[in-house]
Design brief:
single chain; alpha/beta; UDP-N-acetylmuramoyl-L-alanine:D-glutamate ligase; 3-stranded mixed sheet; 2 helices; 38% strand
Length: 103
């Protein structure tokens, strides 16, 4: 059986739709904010699990609500959590993803 080990990030992605990308110094109001698990490592681990590959994922999250959300999402995808470390007093990584109408 093929096995995959992933060492990488586990973040919470905050995606927001905007009418256009902001110019320097410009404020653009957004719609439809979505909070989804992300991070390059997390995405790779989920993809491997979805393919039925035995996967080990090494990453760290914070002891905050976002970390709880990421942990729950990984568990729901079948990613083993044995090597997902929670670090006390640290915030989980967050990525802001701004999407214009062109995608």
């Amino acid at each position: 059986m093929t096995r995959v080990v992933v060492v990488g990030s586990a973040n919470l992605d905050l995606g927001v739709a905007v009418p256009h990308l902001p110019a320097p110094g410009e404020t653009v109001l957004g719609d439809d904010v979505a909070a989804l698990p992300g991070g390059k490592g997390s995405n790779q681990a989920v993809a491997a699990c979805r393919l039925g590959v035995e996967t080990r994922f090494f990453a760290a999250i914070g002891d905050d609500r976002f970390g709880d959300d990421v942990r729950a999402a990984l568990a729901a995808e079948g990613v083993p959590l044995d090597h997902l470390t929670t670090v006390e007093g640290v915030a989980t990584g967050v990525a802001l993803i701004v999407v214009d109408p062109a995608g």
